[in-house]
């Protein structure tokens, strides 16, 4: 079943045409790698999916329901989560505040809605434990954590509200080897829970090892949609840099 | 300050635990609390008049107008913004309230509403220009500083408006249970606004926007709408400050509140509000305002020239920011 369906998305910034009608889809429980050169439009496309940018034309549906009319907050509550490359954390706030930012549970006291700190702390701790992340203290500002620990908080934020689809923008770029394996394991776990995952990465080894399909974005169009089990590094690289099928085939052959 | 060890695991020092506890439970920085207590102690030793209920109420009364403005400054600065028009908007509001009450002879509640409404309107204009026209807050509110002051002089024709209705004067000079009305209004406002900033979604989002606009935006917070409401709130609080001042002196003075924005911002910063947004609490700001109030009151009791008081407050401001930045650099990787 198609979870996320993106059709004919175009986007220009002034005179610069970034996306020229992109089509791609993600099924439930499917991991799709989104690769392409710098400037191919990967981040722009994902920001259109999350609602940070508006599309010039085209359509996006989640479980068959058009979502382009919704703002970023509404799309999150529909189940679209994104883990940004810069993590997008509020560094002076503590772990619970970051995880629940924009979706704080409230309790009514004297007619005023008060943020339910106790629930937030408890659930934040439970999510951190579930991820197996080791944080110095949950009540500390996240700015005092290491890069890997901060990423754990960003991941916890994306997973706390039962997402349907999780977009990860370069989640392994800044991590040590062991932490990379942790992220890849997490992606496999999300897949097993029926969550769709879009993985944006320049590390093609990671992409090849964890995805079901690889969509290649080139000059603002989805130029290739490869099944991971039937492709290889050379074909992906060739699709990214723009060698045609012949060149890719030739390279493929030359390797025997 | 050596860390004590329990079972080989280094425990945080008593100082660190007190610091964390103070911020977590009271939302006040331990350093500013200690400065306030030490300052009060020194003043008590130097002047026999300092430690008395009436002097304490005097300090609160003298702090009430600035205190209300400092609450506004905490919200706006905590969100990563700035409102330099606080003092001028306060002056404008006072004149509008006095004009409605005296020249139009309308009843007290309408004059009060006009006073606070004028402030809110000026704040709404600030917020709209900042969020819709993308002019930096520094420039917008600096412009409003001039516009509001000019408008106050235009409305009052440059003259002080005397003869407020008695029910309005009561808000500034009344003393139910021998507590001055401005103190009651100020303390109530502070408690309510403390709860808003520390415990409501509105307050948490305010600090999150100041901390990282990107984080707040990706979390689905409507930053433009939130910012505009903050400037409107700031203006409304400036209006309340104008009301307290006008009612207390029983006159609408178009020059009221001159440079008050600087004092209000100073109180917020001394109280631990991060100059660049993301951190701040009203209780902290109240401690900051009280530090300045105690300093002024004590130096008054000691008959020190007011010129020196200004110097002392300036020095405290720089010292407070120094300590803040020093600790921030030590503790966080930004």
Automatic annotation (TrEMBL), chain A:
Key words, A-Z? ATP-binding, Nucleotide-binding
**What SMART domains does this protein's entry cite?**
AAA
Recorded GO molecular functions are: ATP binding; ATP hydrolysis activity
Q: Name one Pfam family in it.
A: ABC_tran
Does this entry carry the keyword Protein transport? Answer: no
Superkingdom of the organism of origin? Bacteria
Q: Which ranges carry the ABC transporter domain?
A: 4-244
InterPro entries documented for this protein: AAA+_ATPase, ABC_carbohydrate_import_ATPase, ABC_transporter-like_ATP-bd, P-loop_NTPase
Q: What is this protein called?
A: Monosaccharide ABC transporter ATP-binding protein, CUT2 family (TC 3.A.1.2.-)
Q: Which organism is it from?
A: Tropicimonas isoalkanivorans
UniProtKB/TrEMBL annotation, chain B:
Q: Which GO terms describe its cellular component?
A: plasma membrane
Keywords, ordered alphabetically? Cell membrane, Membrane, Transmembrane, Transmembrane helix
Q: Where in the cell is it found?
A: Cell membrane
Main subcellular localisation: membrane
Sequence intervals crossing the membrane? 33-51, 57-77, 108-126, 133-156, 176-199, 230-251, 257-276, 283-301, 307-323
The topology of this chain with respect to the membrane is: Multi-pass membrane protein
Gene Ontology MF terms: transmembrane transporter activity
Q: Which InterPro entries match?
A: ABC_transp_permease
Recorded hits in Pfam families, A to Z, give:
BPD_transp_2 (PF02653)
| Name of the protein this chain belongs to | Ribose transport system permease protein
């Amino acid at each position: 079943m198609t979870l996320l369906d993106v059709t004919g998305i175009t986007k220009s910034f002034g005179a610069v045409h970034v996306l020229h009608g992109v089509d791609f889809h993600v099924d439930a429980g499917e991991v799709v790698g989104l690769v392409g050169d710098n400037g191919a439009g990967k981040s722009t496309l994902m920001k259109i999916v999350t609602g940070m940018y508006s599309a010039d034309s085209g359509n996006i549906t989640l479980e068959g329901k058009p979502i382009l009319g919704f703002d970023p907050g509404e799309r999150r509550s529909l189940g679209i989560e994104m883990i940004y490359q810069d993590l997008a954390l509020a560094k002076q706030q503590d772990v619970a505040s970051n995880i629940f930012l924009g979706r704080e549970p409230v309790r009514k006291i004297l007619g005023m809605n008060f943020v339910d700190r106790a629930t937030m702390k408890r659930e934040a701790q439970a999510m951190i434990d579930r991820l197996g992340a080791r944080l110095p203290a949950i009540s500390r500002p996240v700015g005092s954590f290491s890069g890997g620990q901060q990423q754990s908080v960003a991941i916890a934020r994306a997973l706390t509200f039962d997402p349907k689809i999780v977009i990860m923008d370069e989640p392994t770029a800044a991590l040590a080897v062991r932490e990379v394996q942790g992220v890849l394991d997490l992606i496999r776990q999300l897949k097993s829970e029926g969550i769709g995952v879009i993985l944006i990465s320049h590390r093609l080894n990671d992409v090849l090892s964890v995805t079901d399909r690889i969509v290649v974005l080139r000059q603002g169009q989805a130029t290739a949609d490869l099944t991971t089990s039937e492709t290889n590094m050379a074909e992906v690289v060739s699709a990214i840099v723009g060698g045609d099928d012949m060149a890719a085939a030739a390279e493929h052959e030359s390797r025997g | 300050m050596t860390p004590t060890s329990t079972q080989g695991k280094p425990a945080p020092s008593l100082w660190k635990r007190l610091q964390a506890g103070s911020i977590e439970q009271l939302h006040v920085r331990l350093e500013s609390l200690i400065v306030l207590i030490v300052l009060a102690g020194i003043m008590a030793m130097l002047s026999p008049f300092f430690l008395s209920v009436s002097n304490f109420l005097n300090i609160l009364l003298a702090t009430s107008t600035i205190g209300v403005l400092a609450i506004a400054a905490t919200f706006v600065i905590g969100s990563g913004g700035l409102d330099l028009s606080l003092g001028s908007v306060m002056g404008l509001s006072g004149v509008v309230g006095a004009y409605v009450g005296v020249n139009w002879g309308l009843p007290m509640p309408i004059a009060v509403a006009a006073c606070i409404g004028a402030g809110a309107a000026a704040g709404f204009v600030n917020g709209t220009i900042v969020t819709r026209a993308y002019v930096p807050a520094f420039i917008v509110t600096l412009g409003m500083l001039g516009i509001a002051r000019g408008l106050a002089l235009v409305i009052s024709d440059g003259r002080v408006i005397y003869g407020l209705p008695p029910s309005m004067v009561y808000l500034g000079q009344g003393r139910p249970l021998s507590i001055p009305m401005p103190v009651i209004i100020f303390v109530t406002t502070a408690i309510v606004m403390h709860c808003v900033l520390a415990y409501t979604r509105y307050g948490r989002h305010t600090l999150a926007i100041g901390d990282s606009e990107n984080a707040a935006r990706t979390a689905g917070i409507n930053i433009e709408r939130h910012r505009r409401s903050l400037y409107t709130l700031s203006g409304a609080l400036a209006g309340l400050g104008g009301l307290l001042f006008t009612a207390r002196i029983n006159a609408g003075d178009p020059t009221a509140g001159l440079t008050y924005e600087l004092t209000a911002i100073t109180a917020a910063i001394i109280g631990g509000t991060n100059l660049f947004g993301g951190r701040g609490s009203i209780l902290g700001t109240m401690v900051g305002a009280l530090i300045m109030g105690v300093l002024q009151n004590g130096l008054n009791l000691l008959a020190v020239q007011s010129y020196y008081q200004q110097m002392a407050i300036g020095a405290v401001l720089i010292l407070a920011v120094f300590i803040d930045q020093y600790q921030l650099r030590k503790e966080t990787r930004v």
